[in-house]
Amino acid sequence: MDVREFRSHFPTLQGDDVPVYLDNACMTLRPKQVIDAVQEYYALNPSCAGRSVHRWGMSVSQTVSRCRRKLADYIGVKQAREVVFTPNATHSINQVAAGLKWKQGDIVLTSDREHNSNLVPWLKLKDKGVELRTVPSLADNSFDLEAFETACADAGGHLRVVSLVHVGNLDGVEIPISEVSKIAHDHGAIIHVDGAQSAPHIPIDVEALGCDLFSFSIHKMLGPTGVGALWGREEIMSTLEPICAGGGTVSSASASEYSLRTIPDRLEGGLGHYAGICGTEAALDLLSKYNMHDFATQEIRVNDIISNGIKDLPGVEIIGPQAASKRGGICSILLKDLDIQNVGILMDEVGGVFVRSGLHCVNQWFEPRGYMQGSLRASAYAYNTEEEAKCFVDTFTEIIEGLSGGV
Ligand SMILES: Cc1ncc(COP(=O)(O)O)c(C=O)c1O
What we know:
Elements (H helix, E strand, L loop, with lengths): L2 H5 L12 E2 L10 H13 L10 H20 L8 E4 L2 H11 L7 E5 L8 H4 L7 E5 L9 H10 L4 E7 L11 H10 L3 E5 L11 H4 L3 E5 L10 E5 L1 H4 L12 E4 L4 E3 L13 H14 L4 H19 L5 E3 L11 E6 L4 H12 L1 E2 L1 E3 L4 H4 L8 E5 L6 H21 L1
Helix pairs in contact: 2-10, 3-10, 6-7, 11-14, 12-14
The structure holds pyridoxal-5'-phosphate.
The site of pyridoxal-5'-phosphate (PLP) has 14 residues, from helix 4.
């Protein structure tokens, strides 16, 4: 792909004092098209979808249904109504966990490297008698299919839901979801996929993945903050109890009862983030001009330079498989004897390199291993260049050598 051309869409990547932005697993930057679409919503037709029938209202309603269709296309979904807008992936997962009907003794299975957003919503079900079990990963953090199969069998007939991160924000490692889905289904469970770190970086086809539910966030794929999405098969989505009911979700309501609308409305309570949805459409329009395989290739190219450039430095350990090709755009680094927050601050001060330092909301992986301060994580997106990767390596090397010399 033409990375320079792609970069030209991003105002924050123009000019003289441009940071090396490698915090894309948190959120990507926004192209001008998205910023304009958000602004145009407020400047030209700041109205409400699905309710007001004046010109502005009708225009926003049309944008919302167009955007829903484009979002469905983006992840390979035929029925657009199966996709609902949410504020973020966390909300999507909470909607699934709290919206399903549970029985005492039901079991949910996750991995040991889940973001807290795909952990806590399931832990919250403890008071309903639902047990959360965890499948340990292999030593290099890749998924242990054998251990997973054993865990499914051990759950007997009680396994209800398998919920797994597709690509880990901890390490960029991908779980073979299509194989996992078959196994989960063979054991009578449904499978929910946390796609927050996969949808922005690799092509997604939920049919090929064989999953039943898929959560993702738009701010990690060029869109505005405050927009996420949840897809699920109609038969599941139609029975989910909304966690936010009221305006927009009911077909009738009296002082004593109510009936819910069909999907997607029943799961989209209250006035939506219409500016965000306008921005989402602009993001999807831009993304549709590129090939996600090219995005993944460019991100691995950048990660390869970063990983090879730093792996032999003293006290440095990359989390996950050593080959960058198995970690997408993510290089998550453990640092012995150094203050990781301090290194994160220095990366900006010394080289203008923006990274993330800390636990990345994956406490369950770091804390049992005694890595209480987490890791320093560089995460690439398709606009990152090889020069930026080299800048990361030079800045990081200077800091580590400087700090280690002083220890
Ligand atoms: C793997 C993963 N799951 C879930 C989330 C939560 O996403 P959101 O911020 O959209 O709620 C994140 C955010 O970083 C993530 O990386």
